[in-house]
Every structure is written in structure tokens, then in C-alpha cells.
UniProtKB/TrEMBL annotation:
Coiled-coil positions: none
Limits of the FAD-binding PCMH-type domain: 13-180
Segments crossing the lipid bilayer: none
GO molecular function, one term: oxidoreductase activity, acting on the CH-OH group of donors, oxygen as acceptor
InterPro entries, sorted: FAD-bd_PCMH, FAD-bd_PCMH-like_sf, FAD-bd_PCMH_sub2, FAD_lactone_oxidase-like, Oxid_FAD_bind_N
Keyword annotations of the record: FAD, Flavoprotein
Protein name (Swiss-Prot/TrEMBL): FAD-binding oxidoreductase
Length: 437
């Protein structure tokens, strides 16, 4: 197996790394690749920062290990290799009446990455995170394959789910699929005039899937205005998804200047009639709306972007309002801003969700944004919240123990399976997650 030098980056394109990469095509090739010791594994690098980067080191690209291994029609348990994309599972199984239980905002996320980040979706308030719907995970630990289960191997399982790939190389998993009505989505959209109304609607929503788009430039009485989307699966005829498009070059700086973003948000908010509307969409259009625009991260220009995503407890809604006010007053936000209600469910020690509200906002990579985002993080921590490792690219990690009370349990587990810290990545080092206490 050949190692090739390459420069890679996270989806935000603000952080990059030069490393040697191997891309095995068969599970039998892993032993050859890892003959000199374990190295971090990565998928499609849809984490925004440096979670999958290993500068001046080696990395294992798992995307060619993408076989479907088995499916039980009675139990709904699907066995796949780690490189399988969630969007491909959705495409193949939704017409058969099954969905991955949890779908993040991109179908290009691999199963291995979804486990390592314990991703959440638009139905978290009902069924929790991805890692809570796994019958097993197969790890490669020190060259030996080990199949772990949530009941039999509780500690190691919780350290693996949301554990940033530090307990071993994730090579396969058994996913407990979710029954669905088909590959059609019935989507209700309505305008929301402000922050308080948004939280009330999110709290009261009984839809299976719920998500909110926020106009992060709106101020005053319009602070927190946006669009609430509620969806249910269905069956029947629906127009085919439109053809995918690509962003062929880095957009110029003025493309996301404050006046243009403000105008775009104003128009986007008004695309939904005052009385609301119900649409029938292909399932991929609802779950993965940006996947049709390949390389959409180029819209932020050659310097890339950062995303700030936090979750705060339900009783910290006032703090979330202050966070949104600071963002709106900064004039730095892009059109991509999302608000969701989260339930209690999470699968691992370092899993992101807590019951409350999560806000995610993209910012072009500028000095002003690099000053603002640490302020937002401090406000979230002060409110009893936390940041999401899959989106972070700027944190210094000094408040991780405050954000994640089970952090010490995770540390103990990963030091047992990877005592030499061969699996550490740039994010792990940046946040000092495995340094001496």
C-alpha cells in the first residue's frame, strides 16, 4: 500500500495540513497499511475544522471501504463498512421504507465520521443522536479487530461514540434503521417573526423533523426572525431532484459583504408566504439542501470560513438571545444560520447534545470573526452550554472540562486503547484533549 503526500483541509478550508495518506480499498489491506503503527482515520472530511487533520503525520482515508455487508428486513439492522455515506444509505433504503435513524445536514458524511462525532439531526428532540442507534461498532485496536456493543462494552462504546476516533479505527458498524413511509417529504414552512416566537414554536412542535433558519443579521424587534420547517416522510410521486451544480472558483470577498448578506436574508425570509405553505420534496432536498451545490464552501473565498455552533440548556434562552444579539450587531454572519431544539439523548462521553437549543452560524474567515467566536464560546460556557467539535476550528480547549463533565471518563478509556497517542489529530492537540492533566 502506497502512502502519498497531500495537502488536505477541513470543510471550512480555514485550516489545512500536509500529511501522508493511504487509501485502502479492502479491509484486508488495513494490516499492511498499519504495519508501522496506528494512524488517525478520516472520511470525507466534512467536519469544518481540523478534526480529521494530522499535520506532518499520516492519515488513513476510509472512503473506499464503503461496502454494504448485510441487512435484516425484520429487525432493520444494516451492517456497513465505515466509509459508506449516509446519503447513499438514504438513497438506497428510503424507497424500501427505511432511513438512517439520524441524518446530519450533509449526505456526504460517512458512517465512521457520524460515529466519531455522534451526529445529530432534525429529529434529535424525539430520538436522540446517531450513536444511540447502533447495535455494534467494529474497531481496529492495536492491529486487532474488536466488535463492541453498547450493553456489553459500555465504557469503551461511550468513549468511541463522539470520541473523535481516539479509541481505535472504526471499520464497520451495525445501524438500527428507522422505518419510514417512503422517499418523499411533506414539508410545512412558516415565517417566524422573532426569537421568542421561534423558541415557542420549537418547543411545541410535534413534527418528526423540525429545523429553523435564522436571519442572523436581523436586529431589534426582528431579532431571531426566520423560517420554521417541519417535515414528515411520505410516499408518492415527486419531481426528481434538480441537477447538482458546482462552485468552480473561490468567490470574491464582496460576495458575502454585510449589505449583500442582509439583502439575501431579507429576500430569503420573504420567499415563504405570510400564511405559510406546504411542499412536497425529494427526501434528499430536505435533509441535505446544500449537497446539490458541490464545493459550496468556495463561496467564502480562498480564506475559508469558521462555524460557531453551541447548545445551551432550556433555562438559558436569555443567554442564547444575547449570543444572537452579539452576532447580529457584529455584521459578520453569513446567510447560513440554523436553530434547532435538542432533546436529552446523546451516545457518548464527548457527545455534543444536551437538552436545549442549538445555534449554528457561519462566518467568513476574517480577523474580526476570529475575535468574535471566542467571545461567543465564552458566553455559551457561562450559560452552561458547550461547543461542537465537528464545527470548531478556533477554541483553545481551556474550558472543555467545564463543557463536558464526562471528559475524564473519555480520557481514561482512550489512554487504555491508544496509550502512545498514535491516533491524535490536530484538533486533539489544539484542544489539549490528551495532554497531561
Amino acid at each position: 500500500m502506497r502512502w502519498k503526500n497531500d495537502t488536505i483541509h477541513g470543510w471550512g478550508r480555514a485550516l489545512s495540513a500536509m500529511c501522508e495518506i493511504a487509501r485502502p480499498e479492502k479491509s484486508s489491506e488495513l494490516a499492511e497499511v498499519l504495519a508501522d503503527g496506528a494512524v488517525p482515520a478520516m472520511g470525507n472530511r466534512r467536519s469544518y475544522g481540523d478534526a480529521a487533520l494530522n499535520d506532518d503525520g499520516r492519515a488513513l482515508d476510509m472512503t473506499r471501504l464503503d461496502k454494504f455487508l448485510a441487512f435484516d428486513d425484520e429487525t432493520g439492522v444494516l451492517s456497513v463498512e465505515a466509509g459508506v455515506e449516509l446519503g447513499e444509505i438514504t438513497r438506497l433504503f428510503a424507497p424500501r421504507g427505511w432511513l438512517p435513524p439520524v441524518l446530519p445536514g450533509t449526505g456526504f458524511a460517512t458512517v465512521g465520521g457520524a460515529i466519531a462525532m455522534d451526529v445529530h439531526g432534525k429529529n434529535h428532540h424525539h430520538i436522540g443522536s446517531f450513536g444511540q442507534h447502533l447495535a455494534s461498532i467494529t474497531l481496529l485496536i492495536n492491529g486487532k479487530s474488536r466488535k463492541i456493543k453498547p450493553d456489553r462494552d459500555a465504557g469503551l462504546f461511550k468513549a468511541t461514540v463522539g470520541g473523535l476516533g481516539q479509541t481505535g479505527i472504526i471499520v464497520a458498524a451495525e445501524i438500527i434503521m428507522l422505518p419510514c413511509k417512503g422517499d418523499v417529504m411533506m414539508v410545512t414552512e412558516r415565517r417566524v417573526e422573532g426569537f421568542d416566537e421561534f423558541l415557542t414554536l420549537l418547543d411545541g412542535s410535534e413534527a418528526t423533523y423540525t429545523v429553523g433558519w435564522i436571519d442572523a443579521t436581523a436586529k431589534g424587534s426582528a431579532l431571531g426572525r426566520g423560517i420554521l420547517e417541519e417535515g414528515e416522510t411520505g410516499s408518492g410521486l415527486v419531481p426528481s431532484p434538480g441537477r447538482s451544480k458546482s462552485v468552480p472558483f473561490n468567490a470574491p470577498k464582496f460576495a458575502l459583504s454585510a449589505p449583500i448578506v442582509k439583502l439575501f436574508n431579507w429576500l430569503y425570509y420573504r420567499r415563504v408566504p405570510e400564511h405559510g405553505r406546504t411542499l412536497v420534496k425529494p427526501i434528499s432536498d430536505f435533509f441535505f439542501p446544500l449537497d446539490k451545490i458541490h464545493d459550496w464552501n468556495r463561496l467564502y473565498g480562498k480564506n475559508g470560513f469558521h462555524q460557531f455552533q453551541c447548545v445551551v440548556p432550556i433555562n438559558s434562552a436569555a443567554a442564547l438571545r444575547e449570543i444572537l444579539q452579539l452576532i447580529a450587531n457584529s455584521g459578520l454572519a453569513s446567510p447560513l444560520a440554523v436553530l434547532k431544539r435538542m432533546g436529552e439523548g446523546r451516545g457518548g462521553y464527548l457527545s455534543f447534545p444536551i437538552e436545549g437549543y442549538t445555534l449554528a452560524v457561519d462566518f467568513p474567515n476574517t480577523e474580526a470573526a476570529r475575535v468574535l467566536i471566542p467571545r461567543l464560546e465564552a458566553m455559551a460556557v457561562e450559560a452552561g452550554g458547550r461547543i461542537y467539535f465537528a464545527k470548531d476550528s478556533l477554541s483553545k480547549g481551556d474550558k472543555i472540562a467545564d463543557m463536558y463533565p464526562d471528559y475524564s471518563d473519555w480520557r481514561k478509556a482512550v489512554e487504555k486503547t491508544d496509550p502512545d497517542r498514535n491516533l491524535a489529530t490536530d484538533l486533539v492537540r489544539r484542544l489539549n484533549l490528551r495532554s497531561a492533566e
